[in-house]
Amino acid sequence: MGEREEKTEVNEISQRQVSIANGGPAHVHAVGRRGSRARGSTAKPSGSEMTFSDVCVDAGGKRILWSVSGKAVPGQMLAIMGPSGAGKTTLLNALAGQTPISSGRVLVDSRRMSKKMKRQVSYVQQADIFFPNLTLRETLRYSALIRLPSELSIRQKLNKVEEIITTLRLHDCATTRMGDAAVRGLSGGEKKRANIGCELLTSPSLILLDEPTSGLDSTSALSLLELLRSQLASQQNKTIVMSIHQPSSQMYYMFDKLLLLAKGKTAYFGPVRQAMSFFSSVGLHCDLQYNPADYMMDLVTNDDSRKILIGEDPKQETRPKKLSAWQRALQWVRLSRGEREGKGEEGEVGEGRTRGNGNIEILEYDNSPSLTSFRAVSAVNPIATSEESSPDDITKEVGPVTMDDDGSETSDEDSLVRERKWPTSWWWQVCVLTVRTFRQSRFAILSPSNIFLAVALSVVASLCWFQLPETEKGLTERFGILFFTIIFWSFNPLFIALTTFPSERVVVNKERSSGSYHLSAYYFAKTISEMPLILFLPSIYMVIVYWAAGLNGWSSFFGSWFFILCSGFMAQSLGLFISATVTNRSTAITMAALCVLTSMLLGGFYVRALPFWLDWAKNFSFVTYGYDALLQLEFTDDRRFTCNEVASSYPSCNATTVLAGYHGSGSGGSPGDGGVITGADVIREYGGVYPLYVCFLAMLGFSVLYRLLAYLSLRHLHRHAH
């Protein structure tokens, strides 16, 4: 159709306008065009075109989004506005592929979003989640080493980091720690730019941002938007989709397109500078001195004006539907197009539909100088550029469609992405993550407070059990210090893991959502990187307390030290399992306290003779094996302890007393003079213990089991929640 014929058709349709007050559409016309951009007319931009049509999302049996449509093109910024609860974050999650949609379509460069393509879209979430103990430059470097492809050298990856730092103006804070609520670090604006920088490392063509100005002052928010506008949208021609709550007028006019949501429905989609014209066309006039964004918030929160824009509330489904201004305009466009093409649209107005050639129609408000209008924008699919395209043609062009592992449709065009599922090898990921986890965890495990706690308790324990006498009376004290040692170095690593891992898990979930690395690579790296850290504090304790208390010399020192480390490793494994399985922190602490106290009761110190029907339970106490090992290493066969002068509880001492009274004298003498208790007598009187090799194998087995269960919990238990 030529230009003159198209103008004639527009004028013909515009003459059939009916006012909104009478139930007709508000000055609507349809422009018969096959695409929003003529292909081949300009150089291919670096950005990607995202089109979403009639997107519906359900959660918890409730519909959150109702047939939301829109389009974002390279070099422009699309703002998603709406009050709290309007569905802005849900829509972004759906566009990023992190929330399943109930119906509708999301296309990136006219291709359906698949599991593999999700890694090509950068999503900057609202919360700025980082490892707090790493500096900004370290954070970007580790991210670059993992996320950039292995074909690039390390020097090239580091140069990319410096380029991002320069682009986002982060030189002044590059060596500052990220920080969190407990650790002072970057400011809110610097963290937000760092969050964007992590996503820019892979040079994405499409960037989604969830309320990036949240928590920033007006100056920082304006500076951030200017940066996104000038550096990314204008200069690098990237496609930017951003949710924003209530921008200032200066920030509002930085956007190109606006998608206004109310109650999960579309209240407006079109150019930012023409939004006020649309609202005026439906009788909602804004004063000149009013901030447009503030006025829109007032419109979508007011019941009367909201009904004009989106119709009845979604909850009121039992009543006959009264079409909103947007739906009536959409109906008029489609009816006009149906009459023009000789086709009628089937289905309920406002529901998702696709043209016969595979194009997606999206209603966009267009304000021409002579006519207040809407235009139907077609997201042209390159495989369906004519009305005559058939399914066979589509298959021939794209290739056979198959089902991916997650049930999503993929085609042969995804083969390149499928072949390179991960940018780097598993072993390289382990190496980089090991170094990063070590640098992050050393501040948590070897924090000044933990070091002070270990040293202070070592001094207190040394004073309480200083140079224990080698007598029967001192045996009870030796039992006490051994049990206290195994309890403390089980309790401490468990709760360190319990308090630090949840925040670390959030960062890992965020990074893995972008396809950065294998979960197994992270978990293996965490295990091996924290081993040297958990050795340090128990070593300080053992060096101080073991010799101060006068325990069993060098022959047993290293064995006792080894089993204390094994006990701490096993307890840390249990803490990881609990924190990975129970996401609520208070509930996790309750579960951990229950496990620790139960293990203490079954460990053999408080209750030495359990009822026969409960005796089996001690095998599941992580205290039992460590305590048994320390007892065997302390009370070896060559140890000798002097018996009590009266009322000894050991048969060997009582036998010596009887013989001494009968003979009047002898080698044994009186209990106070020469009666001894051997280490074997102590173990025998205690009731028997597991052999050392059994203790080691049991602790190793429980450690592996707990860590395996924690891995499975991370991978499967909370998969959909992540």
UniProtKB/TrEMBL annotation:
SUPFAM superfamilies: P-loop containing nucleoside triphosphate hydrolases. This is ABC transporter G family member 27. The keyword Magnesium does not apply. It is a multi-pass membrane protein. It comes from Geodia barretti. It is found in: Membrane. One of its GO terms (molecular function) is ATP binding. The chain crosses the membrane at residues 443-468, 480-501, 522-549, 561-582, 589-607, 690-709. PROSITE patterns: ABC_TRANSPORTER_1 (PS00211), ABC_TRANSPORTER_2 (PS50893).
